[in-house]
Amino acid sequence: MKAKKKSLKELYNERKQMPTHAEMFITEVAELTHRSANTVKMWLLGRQVPDELTQSVIADHFNVDINGLFPIETLKATAL
Predict the structure, then answer these.
(1) Structural domain of residue 71, as residue ranges?
(2) Residue 14: pLDDT above 70?
């Protein structure tokens, strides 16, 4: 099998277009909860909080305590 000819810049640009781990996480949560990526970003920023059922789905998926997902202190800090 013959290797493809690619410049270092072409290799870089291919990698640059790949989603980051953070973007993949947002996509995963959006698909899991049947919400948009923008909604998940709002949750991460503390501007919105999902309903209890959605929180439960996220907690179960990532095997974490539901009570730690959206701490009230974080929500108050971002609201200022």
Answers:
(1) 21-79
(2) yes
